[in-house]
Records
---
Amino acid sequence: MKNCIACNQPIAAEVKFCPHCGAKQPSQTANIPNTAEQEAQAKPPTIIIILAVLTICGSLFGIGRALLYDLFGSATNDDSIRIRAIIYVVTSVGTILGAVFMLLKQRKGLYIYTVFQVIYIATVIYAASAHSHKDENLSSAMLVFFVVPAILFLILYWLKDIRKHLK
Ligand SMILES: [Zn+2]
């Protein structure tokens, strides 16, 4: 529904002439894509919602895993493991923050996300190389399960088609 431009009576949105006073109504065809566009601009595209939700879930899992590492680290009094666990928690929290900003369609979310993910990926690679002396399977598993998806997500977020939705 809209109102007639002449007599202000409520009339159907698609009518060309007002049924009350006969005044010609402005064309709606130009306005319809505008409203659709505005709606599209108001909420983030599905791809960003999917990526951000997966990112937040993965990061929450990362925090849980790091806390377990931390407990393990406390038990063994291994400072390097404890420091790594703190890095995982901090980078996971930063990653979630970045994902939330991206859900709000803010480009700074992508930058925050990228900084924390680069630190996270570097830490996992460093940890995997430290493990590789003792356990080659564990270090390759770390690379496959944590580094590969992280790099894949970074690439996806930086794709022009996805990045263009962030301001
Ligand atoms: Zn009218």
Note: The mean pLDDT is 86.
---
Amino acid sequence: MGPETEEAAKVKNASESREGSLSPTPFWGALCIMAQLDSRPEAYRHYHECQMSIRKIIHVDMDAFYASVEQRDDPQLRGKPVVVAWRGNRSVVCAASYEARRFGVHSAMAAVRAERLCPEAIFVPPDFPRYRAASQMAREIFQQHTDLIEPLSLDEAYLDVTENKSGLPTATRVAKTIREQIREELRLTASAGVAPNKFLAKIASDWRKPDGLFVIQPEDVATFLPLLPVGRIPGVGKVTEARLKQSGITTVGDLQLLELAVLEDQFGRYGVRLYELARGIDHSKVVPNRPTQSISAEDTFERDIPLVETESLIRRLAEKVWAASRKESRIARTVVLKLKTSEFNILTRSHTPPQPPATCEELAQIALWLRQRIDLGAQQHFRLVGVGLSNFRDAEDLQSPLFDEALQKVVS
Ligand SMILES: [Mg+2]
């Protein structure tokens, strides 16, 4: 079984709204024409900026966040391989310190595997209230610079600093200042990427990790992108990567050679997105405070299998989704099971129990029960399975004596 994506679980947010392409105002239009006629670098820069986007985006990503909080708060853990995970056969790694990563340990890996790779690792159970508190402090630092903050998780956020509140002259200076503040006030390190859009900012923050800052200027995009492996593009998981590799495509530069129609034919709507991302185009806005709508995880099998053989994977996916949902302050009401047949037909079944699942086992049980509602005969084979939680509600909206009990178990 090979994972379709490397992420443990995808968290989907509300209003995946994409802004249309920048409609150039008469001013920008005139500037573009001027720039095309004018070969001075400054004019080119303006031209390029109006072509790309005029946004300034920072992606801030705390380094090995949960593990770093543990090392900060317990001097005995410093400099040692630390794995944040619950104990147990089915547990997955929530975070690994850089010392543990040297042994090949990484988040979303089975905890038993991490133990095998690094027997001297110190296992620490996750303490989300403490991580949330540190995350909130980082958030307060961001708020000194901009109100346009889109958190992706407790340890990652996009900031739109096209206009910043702190009066600093450049987005790079804002990113530097934020990193210094995090170091001084939180005694933690963060990596930051600065770029004209979210896609490039996220790639940039990863470039000098840990404790790094990387800036992609609009005029650097054309030289920077072609060298990037396709696997770095969001949404390109191992399966897509392998498919592209079969066609001789390993870098974004290779991808740029494919026409839109070809990509659309191969990958449907995602093909359009691939076409744009390969050119560094991403119009998605930083959307402040958008609440999580769904969390899901899915896996593609190496060979197609019948329904009866899907149980162990459904259980594993339920673990991932459950771990991710524990970081949310809101509660999911609906359990979703997704299957893709060998003919690429997608089937989804969902169930909203009277009370939201209160344990990982309950989530797995509901997902397995939903499997019975797939009625395609024993001969049918499947290539992919996914488990999800959706229909997230604020805890206050679900207040009821019965619900309180479930809530106590979920929000620890
Ligand atoms: Mg991080």
Note: Confidence is low (pLDDT under 50) at residues 1-9, 12-53, 399-412.
